[in-house]
Amino acid sequence: MAVTILFLGPLRDLAGEETREVPAPLDWAGLLDAAGPLVAEQLASERVNVACGGKVLSDKHGLNAQDGDEVALLPPVSGG
Description:
The structure is a single chain. By secondary structure, this protein is an alpha+beta fold. It has a single domain (2-74), classed as Roll (Ubiquitin-like (UB roll)). Helix content is 26%, strand content 32%. It contains three helices and seven strands; from the N terminus they run E-H-E-E-H-H-E-E-E-E. The termini are far apart.
């Protein structure tokens, strides 16, 4: 039973990898622990969103990922 964490953009650089498999189920506290301190610091920002199963969570603190889910960490979008 596993959840896949997908690190996007600069969060991938901080994590040092594109994906990470972690045991399911996965809640917010578990995500912070599994992501590592550098990524967890970024996740604290309101500008970083979390998607689970392809849907952006309106309250990322309510994360409840189950076996087979993909949790994507979405950094702020920039551009012009």
